[in-house]
Specification:
single chain; 76 residues; mainly alpha; 22% helix; 0% strand; rod-shaped
């Protein structure tokens, strides 16, 4: 044994990738779309506004204005 494995050839690997979906372990699937933006900088789908110190604000919400409406006590 000791010869080169058939998938070591880049041309053969590219052929098997396109015909069989045979990707190497951890190999990213690249579909070569022509995006009008940089897909590395863009997030798809719904995204929430980034909040700094969000966990601290959740634990100490009384210190943060505008997070919750003020409680109003009314008569029955």
């Amino acid at each position: 044994m000791g010869g080169a494995h058939i998938s070591d050839d880049p041309t053969t690997h590219a052929m098997y990738r396109s015909t069989h979906g045979n990707f190497a372990p951890g190999e990213q699937k690249k579909r070569d779309y022509d995006w009008k933006f940089d897909p590395g900088e863009h997030s798809f789908g719904y995204a929430e506004k980034r909040v700094l110190n969000g966990a601290g604000q959740a634990l100490h919400n009384e210190r943060v204005e505008d997070n919750f409406p003020k409680t109003v006590v009314v008569t029955k």
